[in-house]
Amino acid sequence: MDKIIKGDEVIVITGKDKGKRGTVLQRLDETHLLVDGINVVKKHQKPNPMKGQTGGVVDKTMPIDISNVALYNSKSGKADRVSIATKDGKKIRVFRSSGDAVSA
Question: Which region holds residue 102: left if phi is over 0, alpha if psi is between -120 and 50, else beta?
Answer without folding.
Answer: beta
